Every structure is written in structure tokens, then in C-alpha cells.
Amino acid sequence: MKVIQLDYSHSYSNSDFPPLVMALGFFDGVHLGHQKVINQAKEIASHNNQKSAVMTFDPHPSVVLGKAQQEVQYITPLQDKIQLMENLNVDYLFIVHFTKEFSQLLPEEFVENYLVHLNVKHAVAGFDFTYGKFGKGNMDTLPIHSEGYFDVTVVPKLENDQEKISSTSIRQFIKDGDIENANQLLGRCFITKGTVIHGKKRGRELGFPTANISTDLTYLLPHTGIYIVKVLVNGKWNQGVCSVGYNPTFHDPEEKQLSIEVYLLNFNQDIYGEFVTVEWHKKIRDEKKFDGIDQLISEIKKDTEEAKEYFSSME
Predict the structure, then answer these.
(1) Angle between helices 167-176 and 179-186 in degrees, nearest 10
(2) CA torsion through residues 99, 100, 106, 112, sign
(3) Higher confidence at residue 127 or residue 71?
(4) CA 209, 263, 221: angle at the middle one, nearest 5?
(5) What percent of the chain has pLDDT over 90?
(6) What is the torsion angle, in degrees rounded to the nearest 10, for the CA atoms of residue 245, residue 246, residue 248 and residue 254?
(7) Of 7, 110, 116, 260, whose CB count within 10 A is highest?
(8) pLDDT at 210
(9) What's the pLDDT score for residue 63?
(10) Nearest to residue 271, comparing CAs of 200, 207, 197?
(11) Is the pLDDT of residue 255 over 60?
């Protein structure tokens, strides 16, 4: 897959690319609905002996257009999105740098500069895709603005239990800790990535040594609680239990930053400094404050047993 960064004043012309079938969208999560759009583009490309392409945007428009400067947490930060597109066997990925200048393009200017000039012969997008200044361009106007240069396919909404599969609903499920429903709409397990760092080593003192994972702030993180997870370390998946929270049992007034700690089952390697992937499967319970260490240890044992039973049932 060829990855091409596009700035507002890009100088590409249609002679720089083969005929393309382009899937359009922001695609945060690359969920089942997004996959439907991308696979539709791939099928058309294959049928017409053309190349498949995806156009996405970075950062999220709200970062640029929001009234206040804000950070956005993503289901799939850009690097993860690129990897997922690679997994879908897309030929070209165009990443448009979303800026104030770009947001001011008229709908017809967007079509001319970002579709016609890239040799797009067929554009595919979901029914709710918009483009151009104030989002005035939509899937009704796209055939008009194409002026016959390319064809247009509108992909209807994909539903699960009569509810539209959307990044918004997946994001809410993750925020609520409802990982199972989020995974169902994603069509795979939700993942986050990070580096194993030194923590306060409380888990080791309790008999459950944990890996503290420092995660990029651009990741959307699940609600505080205890989760069943898998962790990819040095190319191998390991089963585990993950705590997302503030360690309320220890009454530490400095514990203001959310921590992600994973206890890996049947694992005793030193992995400080390793870059790992956490695959989220299921929430066990909410984070809670215990009256003492013994009660906490007893609860951790229950959590690990539940995780073992979960993975046994998956075999």
C-alpha cells in the first residue's frame, strides 16, 4: 500500500496516478460500516481493473474548527488506521492534512483538487459523507460536482439491532466500558498501544506483578475498571487482567493520573521498555476501594480466575 500525504497546496495531477476507485471518509475505528465502504471500492476497482484507494483526514476536523483548542481521543489514531488499511489490502491511502485553509474549500474545489486531480474514476462513500466549506457538499451533490469525470456510489447505513454502526456509538461504548458491544461493531477487538514503564511496584508486593503501560494521549481509553485483555509482547499474545484507574485503595493524593496496569497470566519476563499492544475483550467489574490489602488480594484472585475461565471458553 502506498501512503501519500496531501497538503492544501498539493501539486499532484491525474497523470501521477493510475485510474483510482476512492473510498472517502474519516474512518475513525475502521469499523464494520467503514469496511463496507472500503470493500465496495475494492470490488469496483477489481471489476474495472483499476486501483483501490482510501482518502482520510488528519487531524479530526473538530481540532481545527472547534471554538476552543482541544485534544481528540481516537478509536484508531493515525498509525493504527494506516495499519488497518494495510490489512484491508488497499492500494493507495491518501491522508489529507486538515487545516483551516482546507476547510474553506468550496465543495466543487474539493472535488476538482482532491478527486479529479488524483485521477479518481469512481468515488465511494457512506450516505452521510459531506465535503467542502460548512459541509455543504454531500452525496446528492457529488454526482453534480463530478461533472461526469467520475462515477459515484453511495453506501447505505449499516445497522446492528436497528442502530446505525458509527464511530460515535463505538466511542460511547468504550467510554462506558462496554467493550463487548464496541468489539461487535468494530468487527474485531479494540486495541491500544504503549510502552511498559516503571510503576510503584504495588502489584509485585501483593503477589501480582503488573506491567504499567504508558499510552499515547490520542487513544480513547475505556472507563475505569477491571478488564480481560490480551497483550502482544515481542510478537506473542499473552492473556491478562487489566486495571484502568486511580488505585483508590492506597489513598495516594498524588495519584491523579489514570494508570493502565496489566497482570499477565503465567508470565514472568522483564519487559520494561517494551512497546506492547493491548487487546481489550471484556469488562469484569468497576474499580472500587477496598477496606484492606487482604480484601484487595482476594478480589484480584477472583478477577484472574474469571479471566482464565473466559479464555478457556474461547478455546
Answers:
(1) 160
(2) negative
(3) 127
(4) 125
(5) 75
(6) 180
(7) 260
(8) 84
(9) 86
(10) 197
(11) no
Q: Other CB atoms closer than 10 Å to residue 223's CB: what's the count?
A: 17
Average pLDDT of the residues of the chain: 91
CATH 2.40.30.30 assigned to domain 189-314? The reply is: yes
Is residue 202 over pLDDT 60? no
Rounded mean pLDDT of 17-25? Answer: 98
* CA separation for the pair 136, 117 (Å, rounded): 21
Contact 88, 38 (CB under 8 A): yes
- Domain borders along the chain are 2-163, 189-314
C-alpha cell at 164: 446505525
3: cell is: 501512503
Between the alpha carbon of residue 36 and those of residues 164, 184, 271, 288, the distances in Å are 13, 15, 38, 40
The domain defined by 2-163 folds into Rossmann fold (3.40.50)
Q: What is the pLDDT of residues 60-70, one digit of tens each?
A: 888 888 765 56
